[in-house]
């Protein structure tokens, strides 16, 4: 478990209380995060399979308000993790995701990449505030990189 000034971040492997299902019921949020499921609304089977296939961390302020995702990049040399995240839209613009990513980064000791859409300035700001730099720029997307923390 990770605690920050305003948040509790903890690993999720199942959606026992339905909070993840409620969070991912926002189709606009899923589209913005480029997170897709084969069914909508998401079945509990598919949701629990997802929660067990990548490292998923819940962001809490009394209740679940967002997710942080980490997964190993198969072809990265040296090995790296890919970071993804989503936050319920009511919490946007409050610095919560910047704080959550900073908290998670204190526990990660590998290079990390993240991808944002060209026009997703909020997400780009989160990464910039957490020390990510632009690694490449392709049509419509920016790939960001952060070196492994050596003093964490």
From TrEMBL:
Keywords, alphabetical: Acyltransferase, Transferase
Domain N-acetyltransferase residues, every copy: 6-133
Entry superkingdom: Bacteria
Name of the protein: GNAT family N-acetyltransferase
Gene source species: Limosilactobacillus panis
